[in-house]
Design a protein that fits this description.
This protein has about 375 residues and is of the alpha/beta class. The chain contains 14 helices and 13 strands. Helix 11 crosses helix 13. It starts with a strand and ends with a helix.
């Protein structure tokens, strides 16, 4: 079969779809990987996977109805020329407009996957702004237009299905809940966590909705009781986002010795191995890949009781689930691991077992490909 994968960036194709592409090619399918920003290097890497990179144009953010309509038409022309048997779209705008483009192109089989509901569905400590409420209504309206044309819609967690489809009464032919998108587990071998000193690692963009402010405040609270504890933050800045930490703020935190910030790093696994406990106080996720990676390496997890995050932890078994937006509860669980360092390895082993059972990309991609057949 010819299968078109319609996503956003080339980095997402290579980072999140590589295993799926490899599995599809191995089964003899012809794969076309659509992205917005291919360069010579990423195009070459996609071809090495066995897929054909395809350029298309779309605005990733914002709403420009006329521009989106024109770009949907342009995408439909590309799809019509390729004539795939299946169009599989992922991420919000490709799911909406990629699905409609497939309809216009006469592609009979259309599937889509939402790996999270995004910012407009994320609860904030101060409540949603008028702008966010409006954007949510617009997005739901667009989903109501596109979802009925789907053969199947795939979510990573059951909360997203409830919050989007059931609560908004959107018609969809069939819905599946996949769980995490999975990892090539051989790339994430188990290692014994260090405990002297106890260190806590945060991996993600330094945005409010990722819980970075709670991580920093919890670090401050813990440092007052245990100055030897270490706090590592991996992830890039996004100063265009009003909820993001600024370079100046991060510089101040590092200068006062509260955190060690290394920005975006290639060797995330190495940093996970050198850390004791993984922390993700996010406000909402699909099923976070960063947590899957930490669990595979064998790290206990502290995360929040929100969609996606709560799916990765059995409270008291492989870590702890805390209320969102609460640095105090986060600090309390950090202190538990400092006071009970033996639990770091015990809970980390449970995380490793859970990752082996639930996050094997081979198993996940077999399940995903079964939807295509």
């Amino acid at each position: 079969m010819k299968i078109a994968l319609v996503g956003t960036t080339a980095a997402c194709v290579l980072g999140f779809r590589a295993d799926l592409i490899g599995a599809l090619v191995k089964e003899g399918h012809q794969v076309f990987a659509f992205a917005l920003d291919y360069c010579a290097d990423t195009r070459r890497k996609v071809r090495q996977l066995g897929a054909e990179p395809v350029d298309y144009v779309f605005s990733r953010a914002g709403l420009n109805p006329l521009g989106d309509l024109i770009n949907t038409y342009k995408l439909s022309k590309i799809l019509k020329k390729i004539a795939p048997d299946i169009v599989f779209s992922y991420f919000a705008k490709p799911v909406i407009f990629g699905t409609l483009a497939a309809v216009f192109a006469g592609v009979e089989r259309r599937l889509a996957m939402l790996e999270g509901l995004g910012y407009v569905f994320t609860e904030q400590p101060g409540g949603a702004s008028i702008k966010v409420k409006l954007l949510r209504k617009v997005q739901v309206f667009l989903y109501k237009i596109s979802f009925p044309f789907l053969e199947r819609l795939i979510f990573l967690n059951k909360d997203d299905r409830i919050d989007l489809v059931e609560n908004n009464r959107i018609k969809v032919s069939d819905i599946s809940v996949l769980g995490g998108i999975g990892l090539k587990l051989s790339d994430y071998p188990y290692s014994t966590p260090p405990v002297d000193p106890v260190s806590f690692i945060f991996v993600g963009r330094l945005l409010a909705e990722k819980g970075v402010n709670e991580f920093v405040e919890a670090a401050r609270l813990v440092k007052k009781k245990c100055d030897s504890a270490k706090f590592i933050m991996l992830g890039g800045l996004d100063e265009s986002n009003p909820g993001g930490l600024t370079a100046e703020a991060v510089h101040t935190l590092v200068k006062e010795g509260l955190v060690d910030h290394r920005g975006h790093v290639e060797d995330v696994v190495g940093w996970l191995k050198d850390s004791s406990v993984f922390v993700l106080p996010s406000y909402r996720e699909g099923v976070p890949r960063s947590t899957q990676e930490a669990m595979a390496v064998g790290r206990a997890v502290i995360t929040t009781d929100v969609p996606g995050c709560r799916d990765t932890v059995v409270h008291g078994v492989n870590g702890f689930i805390v209320p969102p937006w609460s640095a105090e509860d986060l600090a309390e669980k950090m202190m538990f691991f400092i006071d009970n360092p033996d639990q770091i390895q015990m809970m980390g082993l449970q995380s490793h077992r859970m990752a082996q059972q639930d996050f094997d990309a081979v198993v996940v991609n077999e399940r995903l490909m079964s939807y295509f057949m």
